[in-house]
Specification:
Structural class: alpha/beta
Strand order of the largest sheet: 1-2-5-4-3-6-7
Strand content: 15-25%
Number of strands: 15
Order of helices and strands: EEHEHEHHEHHEHEEEHHEHEEEEEH
CATH class of the largest domain: Alpha Beta
Helix content: 25-40%
Largest sheet: 7 strands, mixed
CATH architecture of the largest domain: 3-Layer(aba) Sandwich
Number of domains: 2
Distance between the termini: 56 Å
Number of helices: 11
Shape: elongated
Length: 364
Amino acid sequence: MRPARVRPPRWDPFHRSCAVDPSDSVAQTVDGTGKRVPGKDRAQLRIIHGLQEALAAGLEKPVCTVGFFDGVHRGHSLVLEDLRNWAQEIEGTPTVITFDRHPKGIIGAGDPIPITPLEERLERLAGERVEVTILLPFDEELSRWSPERFIEEALVGAVGCRHLLMGFDSAFGAGARGTAEYLKSLPSLAVELRESRPVEVDGEPVSSTAIRKAVISGELDRAASLLGRPYGLRAPVISGERRGQMIGFPTANLDPGFVLVPPVGVYLGLARRQGKIWPAAINIGRRPTFGGEEAAEGTPFDPRLDRFEAHLVGFDGDLYGVILEVEMHRFLRGEKRFDGVKELCQQIKLDLEDLDRWWRSREG
């Protein structure tokens, strides 16, 4: 028998549609056709926008976890595995409650640069075989909700949740007071509570904060260990000055937008589109040979000054306007100013030889 619900919320700040789906449908299915989530069997993911739609959806025994899930990293994978197992125990529905923007950006604690933009975050949740994601717009009103109010009006009242899984460092409610320890201290709790274990790499708990730190400092191997996959991003290909094409090494110029980018330098990696993969030499920087400022090794990416370019070995065609996925596997060298185009081309040839050796070792 379905547990009785408390009254619906007196006021619901989440009835608005979110950017992922401009339609007014109660729920949307994303099956990932033509899209890739590495290493996972993608399930159909039902996306519900806001608490009013969650109330109307009438989910069957939702087993819930709450969080932003930026990066959907190895720590998140364990939480979501525990979520699926618990849902299987009670024949319920594994359900993630997440937000359209990072709460820190609303409460004035700084707006962290996303590891994964919203669309990719939802895709990767589907890759973790989450059946339902409830997407809530996070605003100042929600930031003032106490943990008790969030449980009563959001979890129990709207979603119908009676089973709540907490990550080892997760929290919700004003001031992030709603930790597992705090909830266990309450005299009464309307949900059954379980906790998931942390995942550690070299003695450090895996977290989105640790991944951001690794990428920003150029520690790509460490970022990959924490994520459980190589670090990469997706971005549209935009028009450039065609200098690469003029010197015989055409590049795809990408606009990363507001997303995490490694420091200035040359990287070895790959590019992917519609199931096809190409080795890629990736340059992040200011093109000092053509008049830009020469940046020291380790200089953080600055979207006002730096370009993000990728030379795809073996690709012949037009990529303008398409979304390209680029993975950065290894830092090769810093960006430098050459005496002219001839010297630059000689260095690019050496870079491509390094790329070829790396690619062959990867295939071997």
